[in-house]
Amino acid sequence: MVADKKLTMESFDLLKKYDIPVPRYTSYPTVPVWNQTIDPTRWKKTFKDQFRISNQSNGISLYIHLPFCESLCTYCGCNKKITTNHNVEAEYIEAIIREWHMYCELMEEVPVIREIHLGGGTPTFFSPENLTWLINAILENSIIHAHANFSLEGHPNNTTREHLEALYQLGFRRISYGVQDNDPVVQKTINRIQPFENVKKATETAREIGFQSINFDLIYGLPHQTLESIKKTVRECISLAPDRFAFYSYAHVPWTSRGQRLFDENDLPDAALKMALYQEGKKVFIENNYQHLGMDHFVLRDDELFHAWEQGTLHRNFMGYTAQYTDLQLGLGVSAIGDAVHAFAQNAKSLHEYYERIQKNELPVEKGYFLSQEDEEFRKYIQDISCRGVTYFNNRHQDQLKEFTFPELEKLEQDGLVHFDDKHVQVTGTGRSFIRNICRAFDLHLLMKNSDSDKQRYSKAI
Predict the structure, then answer these.
(1) CA distances (Å), origin 418, targets 3, 328, 431, 438, 441
(2) Is residue 248 included in any domain, yes or no?
(3) DSSP letters spanning 221-288
(4) Which of 248, 242, 343 minimizes the C-alpha distance to 297?
(5) CATH no. for residue 312?
(6) Average pLDDT of the chain?
(7) Do 20 and 40 fall within a single domain?
(8) Does 304 map to a domain?
(9) What is the pLDDT of residues 296-336, one digit of tens each?
(10) Which terminus has fewer CB within 10 Å in the chain: N or C?
């Protein structure tokens, strides 16, 4: 990428211009474009064909969605179920195992597991014994790839030594803690009371046990955040020396996440302050030798994400950035998403519907999308911009590029966000703070529709 430049006060006029609803581009086409129903027979065939290819090359990835949380964090837009009743654990794990066995019946050979990621919700809501039961059931008739990468999301308040020891024995070496913010006023507003001492203890325990990579998720743009509070949060977290940070923009979408209606929107920072929060956090990361890559990640130089960025092999999927890439990601559990290169499929979002499908011995896929050749080509452009800051145009679909993409790139170039010609586009240093907007130039579904309905679909870019 072109050398990074710090946004000045004079640059804030760009913020107002580009503070528009834009997808996060963890997939393309984006989820709102997908069909509300999916042909399960066609999905099975697509999965089966792609499995045959992927299993022979890099193996396959599994994303397992564990939706339960004991309390509601009001900022959260994830699919979750709030309960303090831990009796729900066994029924849910049995359902996931049954779903996995349905997919195993479609496989013509033993699956090679390259990645497992436990997401949520709160995976550490589940007891160590039940997590062990789940993972052993997945692995008992599988081959673990020589370079397997197993990771999980953990809540610092309830991730115990017993959790970490059990998961380490199962092969997990990476953990991501949802820190979000350390300020007591912010924590109270978003209903996530989480003393920094708990973060420190969970981090040190993971290191003692042998976890090789620790990530902290932080969010800027939360209610009541200030420049001083965000600086203090980032510095406190850096004192624990995690290997990487995901520094996410808060997505305010109360029309889809009802919990976000529980705090006053007047307490949210405006676009100028929100970008200033980002710039302040970014400054502290860089001063402490964290490297900025992609949209929202800061990593140490010896982290594999940085190596992947240097080598041009960084990848982005539904979990964010990853150094590993497999051609097949299978989603298990309620609302989980599968990516089979030529198609996406998402499971039922309600537990009731998910359980009902499993009990009928049916795959619980509910919605999805089968990609055209055009979709696949423009998906590659968006991946390149997100992960490498540069992409080169293919001879195919030149008409679509000229009609829809090039006019958008011209506007972006006038504002100093990209350099482009008829062969490629390069993101500038300033443009790195507007990656989502640049990816939008390749979103044909959005550009061809040219509708105001996106205001009720996507969070704002800033």
Answers:
(1) 12, 32, 6, 8, 11
(2) yes
(3) S-TT--HHHHHHHHHHHHTT--SEEEEEEP---TTT-GGGGGS-GGGS--HHHHHHHHHHHHHHHHHT
(4) 248
(5) 3.80.30.20
(6) 91
(7) no
(8) yes
(9) 899 999 999 999 988 989 988 887 888 877 899 999 999 99
(10) N
Say what the pLDDT of residue 9 is.
43
**Per-residue pLDDT for 5 more than 60?**
no
For residues 25 and 98, membership in a common domain is answered with no
**How far, in Å, CA of 56 to CA of 339, rounded?**
17
Q: Report the distance separating Cα 440 and Cα 453, nearest Å.
A: 15
Show which of 271, 299, 332 is a domain's final residue.
332
Into how many domains does the chain fold? 2
| Residue 236 included in any domain | yes
Side-chain half-sphere exposure of 177, counting CA atoms within 13 A:
31
Cα distance between residue 305 and residue 303, in whole Å: 5
Element (H, E) at 364: none
Owning domain of residue 154: 30-332
Tell me, yes or no, whether 135 lies in a domain: yes
Burial code (b: 16+ CB inside 10 Å, e: under 16) for 429-456 equals bbbbbbbbbbbbbbbbebbeeeeeebee
Report, in angstroms and rounded to the nearest whole number, the Rg of the chain calculated over CA atoms. 21
Determine phi and psi for 38, rounding to 5 degrees: -140, 145
pLDDT tens digits, 68-91: 999 999 888 888 999 999 999 999
pLDDT at 261 > cutoff 50: yes
Based on the domain organization, do 380 and 282 belong to the same domain? no
pLDDT for 10 equals: 40
Tokens of 451: 């509708």
Sign of CA dihedral 220, 225, 229, 231: positive
